[in-house]
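Appendix B. Raw example, untouched.
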Amino acid sequence: MEKQIKELTLLLLYMTSWEEEEIPEGMRRSWKGYSFNTLDELIAEDCVRGSNRSKSVFLTKLGIEEAKLLMKKYNLTNDH
């Protein structure tokens, strides 16, 4: 069950993310209203980056690539 929670959290982060000019190219920002334990796991895997003080995280290139694979796995459309 933990694996599915992590996958779906990454998917939701990606699906609700947006691009900003101030962040490095290839990264996206998303609000982090999800389980801190799951977010910590995604940070440890370098799928997302962020601090405990921030209300948002950055999806890394790796995180975006993983989310796109999960979109295919769960038969979801990709609007990004």
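End of appendix B.
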